[in-house]
Task: inverse folding
């Protein structure tokens, strides 16, 4: 029954295939690859700000205060963090390393929400000492660690409970499933339930109950899962209010999942929000005002970034053409892990370049990376266009801003590419130097005898 209604909803949505974000002109790219080489990441600051506004605007009809929280796991480049800090948004962090990055970028701890998986006592001491006060707990053990850390420091953190609503999710990556790793169910036979966590918080005066958090998955294409999760939260709040007359939800964090275009048409954030905003407004009517937190990683950063790589080799067999670039899945891990179909396009940058193009026609063109690994062949998006690929030309991979740069790894002794950001005034600025073989050798212990 639920499955059928979900399929209908997706079909009824007016899906769109957005234009690729060609924010850098070929002349600019040509100049930059001459200066920094390839592979090279390009990031557009303007797109970052635009995405924040687009997501925020989608929730304009929410009868309360809605805030965007950037999940920095998607891309922790300091240049990107600083751009988002200037937007005044909140940040969703998961590790002490991420906290260090935010502190170095001078983020206001009031704009941080900390959601740990490990939930260790020492971790919480550090988080609280940094000034962060909004913390999402995901287990009974984690909550008691937070209580101990808070008591030791004489602080009463605002505590959210991460719920696993156990609703069906249609997404590329599902985070809510029965007996899953994240969060706690509403009820259950053990202490690891929202019911037990709320009881503990309400009875002991160590933590202040702030609200609920759930994260259903990434690249969600069917938004009925949000409706089901909100329904279940509504029923749970009603139940807890019967037990505690002062029970009040101040923050409801609905996690991430806003989709991005890779190959198939996608719904817009406004269509996503339209699916459940009236349900959220019902919640306000029934249970009082709360701040709505909309987390996002992928949507806020994916379209901001392009990876430019050079075609360095080709070969032809029968009706197959293999095009080899100097990038690989060490730079776009999701291409190998999740078969992510990043849109690709051929660029001819300089007439002076030594270009070897074949006039043969091929039914099948394969785009392969430089790694000596079977999985290093890039899936093609429906928006990919590899016509006229030839040695000496370049390939742009679009929408690579999320969950790619942060996965850069030194497989085959490969160094990290530089990152250049196009600032809002149109200037291109180096924001990460490329790695060097010397540096990599030392990082791997090459200088230790
Ligand atoms: C708790 C939490 N919130 C938000 C996100 C961001 O999800 P997305 O990138 O799909 O927006 C994630 C991603 O894993 C997450 O774990």
Result:
């Amino acid at each position: 029954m639920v499955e059928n209604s979900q399929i209908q909803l997706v079909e009824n949505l007016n899906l769109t295939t957005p234009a690729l974000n060609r924010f850098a002109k070929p002349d600019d790219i040509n100049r930059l690859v001459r200066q920094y080489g390839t592979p090279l990441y390009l990031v557009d600051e303007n797109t970052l700000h635009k995405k924040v506004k687009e997501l925020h605007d989608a929730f304009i009809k929410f009868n309360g205060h809605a805030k965007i929280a950037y999940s920095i796991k998607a891309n922790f480049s300091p240049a990107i963090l600083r751009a988002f800090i200037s937007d005044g948004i909140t940040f969703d962090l998961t590790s002490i390393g991420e906290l260090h990055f935010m502190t170095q970028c001078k983020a206001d701890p009031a704009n941080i929400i900390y959601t740990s998986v490990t939930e260790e006592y020492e971790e919480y001491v550090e988080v609280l000492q940094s000034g962060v006060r909004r913390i999402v707990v995901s287990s009974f053990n984690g909550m008691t660690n937070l209580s101990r850390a808070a008591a030791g420091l004489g602080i009463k953190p605002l505590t959210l409970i991460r719920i696993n609503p156990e609703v069906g999710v249609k997404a590329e990556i599902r985070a809510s499933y029965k007996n899953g790793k994240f969060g706690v169910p509403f009820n259950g036979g053990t202490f690891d339930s929202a019911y037990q966590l709320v009881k503990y918080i309400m009875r002991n005066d160590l933590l202040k109950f702030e609200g609920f958090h759930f994260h259903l998955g990434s690249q969600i294409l069917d938004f009925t899962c949000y409706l089901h999760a909100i329904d279940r939260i509504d029923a749970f709040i009603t139940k807890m209010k019967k037990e505690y007359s002062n029970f009040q939800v101040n923050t409801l964090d609905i996690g991430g999942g806003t989709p991005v275009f890779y190959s198939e048409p996608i719904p817009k954030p406004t269509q996503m929000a339209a699916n459940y905003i009236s349900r959220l407004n019902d919640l306000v009517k029934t249970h009082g005002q709360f701040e709505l937190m909309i987390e996002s990683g992928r949507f806020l950063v994916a379209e901001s970034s392009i990876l430019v790589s050079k075609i360095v080799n080709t070969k032809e067999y029968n009706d197959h053409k293999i095009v080899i670039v100097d990038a690989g899945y060490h730079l776009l891990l999701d291409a190998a892990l999740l078969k992510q179909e990043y849109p690709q396009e051929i660029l001819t940058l300089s007439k002076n370049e030594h270009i070897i193009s074949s006039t043969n026609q091929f039914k099948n063109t394969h785009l392969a990376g430089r790694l000596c690994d079977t999985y290093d062949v890039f899936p093609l998006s429906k928006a990919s266009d590899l016509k006229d690929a030839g040695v000496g030309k370049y390939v742009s991979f679009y929408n690579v801003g999320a969950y790619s740069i942060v996965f850069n790894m030194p497989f085959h002794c490969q160094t990290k590419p530089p990152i250049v950001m196009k600032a809002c005034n149109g200037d291109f600025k180096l924001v990460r130097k490329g790695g060097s073989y010397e540096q990599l050798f030392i990082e791997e212990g090459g200088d230790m005898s």
